[in-house]
Fold each of these.
Amino acid sequence: MHKVAFIGLGRMGLPMARLLLKAGFAVTVFNRTRAKGELLAAEGATVADTAAAAVEAGGIVVTMLANDVALKTIADDVIAKLGKGGLHISMSTVSPETSRELAARHAAAGSDFVAAPVFGRPEAAAAKLLRICVSGASGAIDRARPLLEAMGQSIHEFGAEVGAANVQKLVGNFMILSAVEAMAEAFALGEKNGLDRKAMNAFFSETIFACPIYQNYGRIAAERAYQPPGFAMPLGMKDLRLVRDVAEESRVPMPLADLLHARLLTALAKGREDYDWTAIELSSAEDAGLR
Amino acid sequence: MHKVAFIGLGRMGLPMARLLLKAGFAVTVFNRTRAKGELLAAEGATVADTAAAAVEAGGIVVTMLANDVALKTIADDVIAKLGKGGLHISMSTVSPETSRELAARHAAAGSDFVAAPVFGRPEAAAAKLLRICVSGASGAIDRARPLLEAMGQSIHEFGAEVGAANVQKLVGNFMILSAVEAMAEAFALGEKNGLDRKAMNAFFSETIFACPIYQNYGRIAAERAYQPPGFAMPLGMKDLRLVRDVAEESRVPMPLADLLHARLLTALAKGREDYDWTAIELSSAEDAGLR
Amino acid sequence: MHKVAFIGLGRMGLPMARLLLKAGFAVTVFNRTRAKGELLAAEGATVADTAAAAVEAGGIVVTMLANDVALKTIADDVIAKLGKGGLHISMSTVSPETSRELAARHAAAGSDFVAAPVFGRPEAAAAKLLRICVSGASGAIDRARPLLEAMGQSIHEFGAEVGAANVQKLVGNFMILSAVEAMAEAFALGEKNGLDRKAMNAFFSETIFACPIYQNYGRIAAERAYQPPGFAMPLGMKDLRLVRDVAEESRVPMPLADLLHARLLTALAKGREDYDWTAIELSSAEDAGLR
Amino acid sequence: MHKVAFIGLGRMGLPMARLLLKAGFAVTVFNRTRAKGELLAAEGATVADTAAAAVEAGGIVVTMLANDVALKTIADDVIAKLGKGGLHISMSTVSPETSRELAARHAAAGSDFVAAPVFGRPEAAAAKLLRICVSGASGAIDRARPLLEAMGQSIHEFGAEVGAANVQKLVGNFMILSAVEAMAEAFALGEKNGLDRKAMNAFFSETIFACPIYQNYGRIAAERAYQPPGFAMPLGMKDLRLVRDVAEESRVPMPLADLLHARLLTALAKGREDYDWTAIELSSAEDAGLR
């Protein structure tokens, strides 16, 4: 079995790499701050000093990085080292454009590229509960599948157009924040009419909206449990910006995405960088004179 | 056991009255068009010719009518006839203001009033799957409970302020249409990037949004199954108007509710009266040049 | 010359009635609080104790009241007293629907009705600088014209459909507040980039936006001269509500009107009842973290 | 007198360079397509083959280019050639960030940079009616002033922060399109209520909105004179994108700018690239079912 390079050991990458180790893959890890890699050494990982050193020619590389720039920064080394027959499984939340660009560069170098972004917070990653969306050439997806199955509870294919899974991931985050905004306005109206926001949320999350997003985010919003953040405001801003960029390039007006972006901007302008992104809810309360 | 009067045998009222009959209640029904009542005669219902004739002094009246005006229209007769010791269970989707006004008038006449609006479409009503929100004096709710339990799968109390359940119902409908708008924008963006809207919906409705609203409305929107309507556009408009009215009176800005209202207006302006309200989705597609 | 009845001596009505007196009309005034009428007695007005007492059969009545309800409240008496050959010049800012309804009732009683709402603040009224929009039967407008010319600097006809002038007035107020919102967002962006809002406004109001609205409201917004109000927040809310009502009835989505309405609601929720409506500007500043 | 280099002879640059020639400046012009330059040769201009060739060491360069990228593309050559004592007058509509970046690079090379964007269409440029906003070091502005006075009817200073004039220009374009949106919604409401859009516009542009923007754009919108475009849709999109970029960086939520951006996207999605940007008006009409 080829060794697997895993690049990016942040809050998501670390538990994901650990799952690969647990599943028996030989994993070489690389992270900008080496200490994160050392955490996995005791569990069997080899720790590399550079991205290039982690990659084996013709092998498989998994990347889980903070954003498009971070991914592009290591891409040169990865593509050069990987060479013919290699496979890059890109799991970061990035723009479809970045995936298309990297896939083309990989193709030119004889290697494959699949986009495989994930839904789920760090706790979900640790519990192997991630939902993984994947797109790219079907042969490449087949090759990636054993690794993806080691890291998530379900794998969802979105076809050969390599950016498709990224679009699905981005609109998913957009839909999550849309649900938050809906709850925010609903709770504000309820509260001003004497209802208890926890009771409101209990009803919805047990009945017509009995699904993870409303249950998690509804609880966070009802209790205003914004610190420490599960998904911090600037990360939400990054994703909504990507949604708006894709929307502009695709010529798709998205007024609800614009509303959410304005809410995030307001939160940042008011100094809420280290709040969970659910805290956009505060805008509805403040505009209603509730705070 | 007192006889129960059931007023309003529309698409919701008819299956609800039937559940009361099945549960063994003696039910006298009244509907503006008598034919609807006759349908239940074979199942044991008594059919009255007027609202007043259906009501027994000191008894229980259930109303399930189209809107605030329809409810207020029969209220005079109901209140007069019901008198001391009576109970009015108001299950229509109306404004909290109407409930507060009727509750006051009932109190003046010595009778009780509870608001008990429901979530669920006609099929859900027939299958005893409605979710019932209820508010009012706790003694009155206790008295209403056996009937509510005969008609729904769960009963959710929202306290003594009689309009509270109406607010919960209205914001619920607002949240449902918010989910539709989120899917509409997401699907438009996906489609312009080569994704299949059914595949997009399948992922969401099986994973992070695996709950009735996203499953039902996601399917309707993905398949554009807008006719015949499950919940027609003008009904959606009525409910969003009520949301906006309460928001204005309560001084709660709701930009997302405004967006949904504009979507409904567009659909009506384009002649989609007899489409399911999910068809607000078409605006996103049209504005993106997809149709 | 017939005597003219003038009903409603508020901040606008008083200077308007005075202009009629100055122009030589015999005017009988009526106001709910009689003291206002007494102010004009010294200038030649007759003061009546009731609306009906002010009106002469077959004569002319001018009304300038706070809203639709106030106008409808006195309408019964006016129509009854005026009778055949009378003319009602309705100058209040009301809905086109109210004008249509009153015109029909006047027609049934043999009298005429024209809608003649005005643009301009009390100072403009005093200086005979009002702009008057008028709609109704052309014969009735001809009969009204000498009075209108005594009260405004220009008269603008909008045809025989009696509600037309009201629509023009309402969209005018909508356009004014739209200009305020545009300036508010522009000033917030400028201020956060180090520009001076007064300098920004000076440029616009001297060049491409050198017209009364931008000059007046730009100055108010740049200086935040919100108290005492020239046009108080609740009046703005009343007019935007009318705009939204007409939009809903006409099936015209107006997202900008919705934005303005939300701004007004926010201002009211934050306790700014006695601010000039230009103070919706504060929302942009607050959401940008500038206050 | 130093020779002046003028780079960029598009629809705006050409008439502006001509004004410099008329005012007696010795002008060397450069344009990517040389033919544009030849047009001015007969009027006394020297035509250069490269940007660098047009620039004189220590002299003055005026640039009027399509966007940030075009400006940055020629900036290397300009800065290198201009050297100590030179002055760059940048008149393009670009982001304040670009101005700040270029000003820093000029400073490092010993030359000065002022931002001097303009308001006005090509006809206004030809008639010396442009309004010029300028920011930068006061000494540099003083040196630029004779040229600016030769090209515009008025010069407006916005201080030493070099990006300030760009912000003023961008928010100005935002305010212009805001006025268009306000008229669009107003006209749609009017039209559905039987008013004539030309009559509506005539009133506004002669009275409370009697200023160039409402007069020009009101006429274009009332007559739907969208082709040929005075300012084409993609140019409007470019400017609104810059507004949104600055807003995001500055953390200033601008919901009205978002609405305008969505309108532009809709127009582009519907294939209206070669329409005047005023044609965002069509969205209001279409959503109201008027087309």
Note: Chain D is about 55% helix and 10% strand.
Amino acid sequence: MASNTPSAAPAADVLSDVLHRRGLMFILSSPSGAGKTTIARRLLAEDGHIAMSVSATTRPMRPGEVDGRDYHFTTRENFAAMVDAGEFLEWAHVFGHSYGTPKAQVKTGLREGQDYLFDIDWQGSQQLHQKLERDVVRVFILPPSIDELRRRLTGRGTDSAEVIAQRMERARAEISHWDGYDYVVVNYDIDICFGKVSEILAAERMRRTRQTGLIDFVRDLMGSDG
Amino acid sequence: MASNTPSAAPAADVLSDVLHRRGLMFILSSPSGAGKTTIARRLLAEDGHIAMSVSATTRPMRPGEVDGRDYHFTTRENFAAMVDAGEFLEWAHVFGHSYGTPKAQVKTGLREGQDYLFDIDWQGSQQLHQKLERDVVRVFILPPSIDELRRRLTGRGTDSAEVIAQRMERARAEISHWDGYDYVVVNYDIDICFGKVSEILAAERMRRTRQTGLIDFVRDLMGSDG
């Protein structure tokens, strides 16, 4: 179900996860160039409890991709039928193809304590929030300055001024939705920013309402007279 | 205003606090013996941005105490007048004396970005939450088991069985209010528990709604075309 398998957790983490808890949907959004992809990759690599959900898509499979691991590859007809049946948590058209998050997969995972990472824009974020509000944690990453953003978007200097201007315009449009997020982190330094995003994830896991195992734990605590 | 002066913050912390933010009220509650006092002391010692608010009290000053640092010492008449005027965020009678948190002090501090730590029970927590809901973060610390709690409450073994039974009864009564908190941490290990409480505090500081400086930051980011 998840694209990366939960790995062995460190001792400290084991202690914290003795009690059952409901998973959460961790949304990372940012303008392109603000560091989101680096942070998402590190979270997936270092945190054994969070995974990407596997999206359904109408785009053709590429060499090396595996159906059900990278994507659930499907036809336009089937995708449209899933949309009509309300089987997506969120979906979007990107460059002529459709991508969507199947509801059933995520709902089962959340119940079992699996956290999901979503690297999506503000529109996808809004769709998820409308459908599963209490499970969603929305984090927006901001660049430290517009000059630094331009530097990152300029890349190796091989792109035309026009292409860079378009990228800047898209970045500005994305930034304008910063106030639809629960948390905001300014990426002055990628390691510090990663640390802050990890702290948000760790804290949200400790919310009382997610720790479904607490009810039995407290009942035992109150009831026993050992 | 605060009983401990904010000290120099580490570099990582400085970077995160470039933007102005509104302070928060961090409530730690737990049954006696669950580790709350140790964690509160460590937070105050290691975190330069959080302080205890100075309570007003009708109890007499003790040797070594300083008015305005340890408490605002006041008369029963004056305390009662402050209660009538609604000048307390929360107040309570404990062992024949009154204690209360003056509203004006905390409100000014929060505006200036000062965080306050409250080591109070569920009733005080409820009072604070009713008055300044958006500024309050409530954390409940649970003992790992009733046996461990009894061990901690038994202390040096000099207390009578009756006294210990009373303590256990009070602890059970406090635990029964665990579901009035935003976060719950089980104290299996004091260092891990302290780390978790620190993560909650760090994450809550990154809430968009507390980072009042973001509005200007984003305006500059969007407006500048450097």
Note: Chain B has one domain: 22-207.
Amino acid sequence: MTSIAVIPGDGIGPEVTDQAVRTLDVLGFGLVFDVLDHVNADTYLKTGTALSDADFDRIAASGAALLGAVGDARADTAYARGVLLRLRFALDLYVNYRPARLMHDRFSPLRDASRRPIDCVVIRENTEGLYTGIGGRLRPSTSQEVAIDSEISTRHGVTRILDFAFSVARRSVCMVDKSNAVRHGGALWQDCWALARGRRPDVQTSHEYVDAAVMKLVHDPTAFDVIVTNNSYGDILSDLTAELAGGLGTAASANINGATGFGLFEPVHGTAPDLVGTGTADPIGAVLSAALLLERLGHDDGATAVRAAVDAVVAAGQVTPDLGGHLSTNDVGAAIRARL
Amino acid sequence: MTSIAVIPGDGIGPEVTDQAVRTLDVLGFGLVFDVLDHVNADTYLKTGTALSDADFDRIAASGAALLGAVGDARADTAYARGVLLRLRFALDLYVNYRPARLMHDRFSPLRDASRRPIDCVVIRENTEGLYTGIGGRLRPSTSQEVAIDSEISTRHGVTRILDFAFSVARRSVCMVDKSNAVRHGGALWQDCWALARGRRPDVQTSHEYVDAAVMKLVHDPTAFDVIVTNNSYGDILSDLTAELAGGLGTAASANINGATGFGLFEPVHGTAPDLVGTGTADPIGAVLSAALLLERLGHDDGATAVRAAVDAVVAAGQVTPDLGGHLSTNDVGAAIRARL
Ligand SMILES: CC(C)[C@H](C(=O)O)[C@@H](O)C(=O)O
Ligand SMILES: CC(C)[C@H](C(=O)O)[C@@H](O)C(=O)O
């Protein structure tokens, strides 16, 4: 028996998480679900606490966690940070694993999509960079104000994310930085990159500055397999790869501690307030995040089955409006489950 | 008589700059050219100096500067920084103005290009952010190494770039940041943004987080007019908009001190070592940069004429291979001049 902490969250989070949980339920594998449906913006607005220490401990004690989406226009940005970034940092989930695969030519925003099907993974460093919160504001709100956010890179952090990238490479690894302008961390990434490449002479490698990487991804996404980069560039590049793969609705992600194996799995999309209650939210991103969870728990066969079921419903056009279909969130989920 | 400092630089820099200078020459306007063709990687490799103080003073004393491209695989990154970033910072060229306009549907990488023609301008803050070089490495090359690059935002710097963006808005201004994760500078940008919007209630505005902005640009670039953002995001977004407008070959840019009016004009592309000497480098990015220079000097009619000539050669298919043509760099330049 493995306990899965479930944080449905806000907006469409509960709707898509429900489909992910039911998908896992059909497969069995002895998973039990500990649903924390009070972790949401309402609670934050009432109590001022984004995630209580008791809830944090419950999640940390679970075998893995599944998250829907957190955020709310009524709450300040400290709320989303207090849930998502707290979990990433406090559980040292240093790998943000974001695969992007074009499931059907017609989903691509690119011309000649059949010749440019994206199939890559962004490996984003998830515990350093510009996301530590370290910095401050001097003379706030005056004309002399200076604000500083420290972009922090450590040899420990950079080395482990590079090594993780090599461990999941199929064809190649491309390291993305801005070492021609952002000097100090840039030099550290370059040093660690040279060493990591040396440890894996069997894997083909390349390097791009982030601005050039964006252009090349649009120009020819097939050139990329595994892309490894820092927290900020990973945030940006993984939204781009998701868009090139057909939009945010289907993008899945895993936040992993590569040492303990603990993972927090979430669709890349947000709360999508305009879709709440319409029954049109795409559940595929959440369901594919559940597939990543199965993989992490060692149930590769289950993950493969979920992906095959998703591919089949997509091929059959059993999809929500974002993918050109007219099925509801629940109908897509049911169609996936029917194929398991 | 206005003296224009010309820095052809490296790679294809001299080839495209030659076309830009000849375009300006045809138009007259009393421009004289002070060519600094010794500012290049050979000089840097020989002397260790990227840009001498004497050369810096010559450029600073000119009426405007035109740059080709700087960079060389034999030189370290301090070389490009020592020329380009030094000029941007020391001359306080705080506006990086990067327009992107799809000149012909067939240049777009997007499907249904005719419904999604990009026509926007990225206004990039050019003198702060992650580009100051401030930071360092603690315990370099040891397993305990920590590197820090400070992302610096000042009320002075953010306010002036936001106001500049409003001053060039046609339809709307979209401010892009990552204030949900990068807190301190994020809060400063948000404060300054609220004030800048208040000063220009006549202009339509929107806000996007940088990851969402990238998705929306690919999804529907027509949604954007003026985009204003920090140094790093401006670097990334302007390469994306250039790609969506048909590739780097035609993208022009201006580095401007909004107070003195001094400008350094350069194509967005780099040195393109593989194209050197082939005669296939696209001169349009450099020629359109010259048009921006004319505009800055108050010769709006000249700028309009150059743009019309470029549009005409593009419509006639008189273009280099990157745009599907078979003309040489010089032939494209000659075709543009023939229409002036
Ligand atoms: C060469 C590099 C430092 C530069 C930058 O990032 O500013 C370039 O990419 C640009 O956009 O002008
Ligand atoms: C909500 C935000 C802080 C978050 C991030 O930037 O990490 C999100 O964009 C993501 O990519 O998971």
Note: The mean pLDDT of chain B is 97.
Amino acid sequence: MPSLEKGLALGLIDHFSLDLDEVLDAADIVVIGAPPKATAQLLTEVIDRAAHCGSPIVTDMASIKGFIVDSVKRTYPRFIPGHPIAGSEHSGVEAAKADLFQGREVILTPLPDSDERALLAVEEMWVAAGARITHMSVADHDAALAASSHAPHMLAYALTAMLDDHDLLPMKHGGGALRDMTRIAASDPVMWRDIALTNREALLDAMDALAVEHSRLRELIDAGDGEGMEQYFMRCRQLRRAHDNILNPFIPSGEVPG
Amino acid sequence: MPSLEKGLALGLIDHFSLDLDEVLDAADIVVIGAPPKATAQLLTEVIDRAAHCGSPIVTDMASIKGFIVDSVKRTYPRFIPGHPIAGSEHSGVEAAKADLFQGREVILTPLPDSDERALLAVEEMWVAAGARITHMSVADHDAALAASSHAPHMLAYALTAMLDDHDLLPMKHGGGALRDMTRIAASDPVMWRDIALTNREALLDAMDALAVEHSRLRELIDAGDGEGMEQYFMRCRQLRRAHDNILNPFIPSGEVPG
């Protein structure tokens, strides 16, 4: 309980209770923020009781949605699955940041039976925190995040392991590029084990797509195709600059979102 | 000539001359700083004349050594090939930084016939700029840099291209991890084309080693081997933290060294 008391002392929360029924009865919206496996357990428990305890709106923040939605056996139209693309490598009540969601994307994946008013309330909550809302299907969310976040993490892990296995210990001779490309290999091993276990198929698809692209580039290099490489690199430079300038102007570097 | 005059006006250089023989006659050490292909051309021209023009010590800064050394046909014992692991995505005289080499590694790859006193003089020059010196063979340098810098750049390019080809345009939904992993995909296309052309074999070896490691990690994920993944990720976290804390404490993030 020390972290709840600390939150109270810091003025970050107004009340807390360890009595789940009491919490559900009092709440308008229940937001579950925990790693994927813990989120699935907590959601199951909350939704089992919610209908009899004030019927609050329920949402979550887990970075995987298929596993979460599949884990919750009971139908509850006031459950709106969500995923804010924000976070850092820090955790705990002292890492709280009022502007954590400012300008960031929150993906909501409403289910076929989701209540329209519950969806609107969850959207309003996120907009009040400064976020912008995207709707996606559960499957699209998991595939997009496998490609944009989960597979890049696996790449950083594989690169780090390769460098350590190399006879010449090339990590000793790396500069800023290497530093960037391996930063997220310091991410939490248990969290990433759970993500790889719970978003397995979409992650494997993204890793395969990446392997195909990597071997396409390898062919250009093997063939000494300078013109092909220059076009390839030019296209990537344009894509990366568009990403910086237009799509995600709000995201500072050096973060490790979940 | 405007950039040389600007250098003079800014007090960055004391003199300049466009007469190569005059420069060689006056110089103690000639340092060639240019992309790999231009470095090879300039070195050939300088070394062809150096023996008849004051015999200055000659060194270079190119990020590939085998191609450079092979390009210089004439033997000149006072040529010491070098590569400072430092730089940024900026170029030109106004991007000059007095502390650019402070705490950074400079790899020298002396040749079998290299003059010992010339080597010492080049080392003293780099130490005066704040750098630390490593000696490597030409082949080891190119293999280590292929793994620590060139292959990671190819990875960033391949990831960026994969994300753009993906139906769901996942780059729109990326956070800080994606930003880090694609930053160097904005690097200069011509420079990286030249690096891939001139360090082709070592780069292909590093890309192959990475593909093997990536597919090893893929197998753990495919098998749902949670314990294996956790060990793998834990090892990477330790390696990455050791890299941050011990080996390269000087390198700021967000740089794109050549």
Note: The first strand of chain B starts at residue 29 and ends at 32.
